[in-house]
Write a structure and sequence with these properties.
The chain has helices at 35-45, 56-69, 88-97, 108-114, 121-129, 157-168; strands spanning 5-11, 14-21, 24-29, 50-51, 106-107, 142-143. It is α/β, with parallel strands linked by helices and 171 residues long. The relative contact order is 0.16.
């Protein structure tokens, strides 16, 4: 996935980033421990991208992400994603995760069952652990069996996941 540009922006959980191509977002970055580390992570993920002002469609996506993280019920389904280079199974997992409404959760096994692969819960978890579009592909809404929080690969780990779920629940 080749990004043309990226930008950082403020949210209730910290300074996030997005990178984009002509076809949509190619990546979303949750906050690192500092703005510098978030920027460095974006440069690491998208070395050919320039930090620049976003085009109008990306500005709209950023505004929707900010609103969702403020607790507004928005599924972000209208945000275009450029999944060029995303493995077919991962793409299917991300598409299934995008159907989980804000404030709701599913287990990894539930997502696997929706894909017609009920024994693929671990593979679903691995795909979500590599999710290049956190928030827009709401991997935070997918839990381990029995309602356990499961893992979360973003900075802050499961505490960040719990915070995102609480924001969606209006807490």
């Amino acid at each position: 996935m080749t990004a043309h540009g990226f930008t950082l922006f403020d949210t209730t959980i910290g300074r996030c980033g997005v990178a984009w191509s002509d076809r949509g977002l190619v990546g979303v970055q949750l906050p690192e421990s500092s703005e510098k580390m978030t920027r460095d992570r974006m440069l690491q993920r998208f070395p050919a991208a320039a930090e620049t002002a976003p085009p109008p469609n990306v500005r709209i996506a950023i505004d929707e992400i900010i609103a969702m993280l403020r607790g507004e019920r928005n599924d972000l389904a209208a945000i275009a994603l450029d999944m060029d280079g995303v493995a077919p199974f991962h793409r299917r997992v991300y598409e299934a995760a995008r159907t989980i409404p804000p404030g709701r959760t599913l287990a990894y096994g539930d997502v696997a069952a929706r894909l017609g692969a009920p024994r693929a819960a671990r593979a679903v978890g691995q795909a979500l652990g590599r999710n290049p579009f956190p928030i827009v592909v709401p991997c935070h809404r997918v839990l381990a069996a029995g309602g356990k929080i499961g893992g979360f690969s973003a900075h802050g780990g499961t505490a960040t996941k719990r915070r995102m779920l609480a924001l969606e629940a209006g807490e």
